[in-house]
Amino acid sequence: MKVHAKVCAGLLTALIAVLGLGSVPSQAAAPRVTKVLVFVEENHSLAQMRTGMPYTFGLATTYGYATSYTATRHPSLPNYLAIAGGRTFGVADDQAPSAHPLAGRSAFRAAILAGRTAKTYAESMPANCTLTPSGQYAVKHNPWAYFSWSGERADCRRFDLPETRLAGDITAGRLPTVGMVVPNLCHDAHNCSLGTADAWFKTRMQRIFAGPDWKAGRLAVVLTADEDDRASGNRVLTVVIHPSQNGHVVTTPLTHYSLTRLYNDVAHTKRLGGAATAPSLSAAFGLPLG
Questions:
Q1: What integer is the mean pLDDT of 87-101?
Q2: Which terminus of the chain has fewer Cβ atoms in its 10 Å neighbourhood, N or C?
Q3: 3-state helix, strand, coil in the chain (%, to 5)
Q4: Any alpha helices (H) in 53-189, and if so which ranges?
Q5: Which pLDDT value is given to residue 27?
Q6: Range with the poorest average pLDDT among 4-13, 78-87, 219-228
Q7: Which of 187, 167, 34 is nearest to 111 (CA)?
Q8: Is 264 helix (H, G, I), strand (E, B) or coil?
């Protein structure tokens, strides 16, 4: 029986390696999470993402995912603001930052003020902290661009970066304490297929799995969607990827404010807005925070 178990374990390890799903989650005590990197997809439900993103859902079943995670409202922008700031700030549309200069604190600025680091990586953005749409870049999906109060804009200009900077930060172990990756309008499945988004995410995850932040166990990756297609009660797939997770299916009701709370807790900052009372994502998944 011991030989049989070893053979099965070896086959599982080989299969996961072939599929590009990282390493087999360890049953030993996992390292503490000191960095979190969030990827946000667009306008698809849990059921749609489960069937349309096979690589991503493979990670979900290998590591962990939530079955009762709901977005905040419609359309896109309020959901991104909820993740980044713990509030929708009364925004109910997708207008540019000139229409919504927010006098509030973001999780990114809060982390920096606490001596941690924060970066966002927006694909197809022509320059740091671009405040208007440009080609495949949708500013409505880049929440830091909306925060303009007390140092926020200066931080955005320094640390809200084109996504081309992501690969170098992964390889060098320079991923931030609090990070967000915003795919462009094709790769977030807004204008292109879920299969296209899935392939794009796979290339980023394969790089992450080879990077020092992942190998040290200090990085947790979360993938979610801003909202559904208005047909599934705003329930979206949310995947948590960290060595502490091993086929973990979480049924606890969670929201985008739970994700804000994770940002705040990893950075050891005050919980912003709805994060103060939101269900804990880290507790639901048993993530060991540093």
A1: 98
A2: N
A3: 40, 15, 40
A4: 54-62, 76-85, 107-113, 152-159, 166-172
A5: 45
A6: 4-13
A7: 34
A8: helix
Q: Provide the pLDDT for residue 23.
A: 56
Contact partners, residue 203, CB within 8 Å, separation at least 6: none
Confidence (pLDDT) at 30: 72
Q: Is the pLDDT of residue 192 over 90?
A: yes
Q: Residue 180: what are its φ and ψ, rounded to 5°?
A: -140, 140
Helix (H, G, I), strand (E, B) or coil at 7: helix
Q: Are 22 and 209 in contact (CB under 8 A)?
A: yes
d(CA 264, CA 106): 10
Using a 10 angstrom Cβ sphere, with 0-12 exposed, 13-18 middle and 19 or more buried, the burial of residue 14 is exposed
- Other CB atoms within 10 A of residue 232 CB: 15
Please give the model's pTM, rounded to 2 decimal places: 0.91
Mean pLDDT across 150-162: 97
Name the residue among 218, 217, 213, 187 with its Cα closest to residue 201: 187
User: Residue 106 corresponds to which tokens in the numbers above?
Assistant: 């973001």
Q: Cα dihedral angle (51, 248, 86, 31), rounded to 10 degrees? A: -130
Domain 30-285: CATH architecture, name and number where available: 3-Layer(aba) Sandwich (3.40)
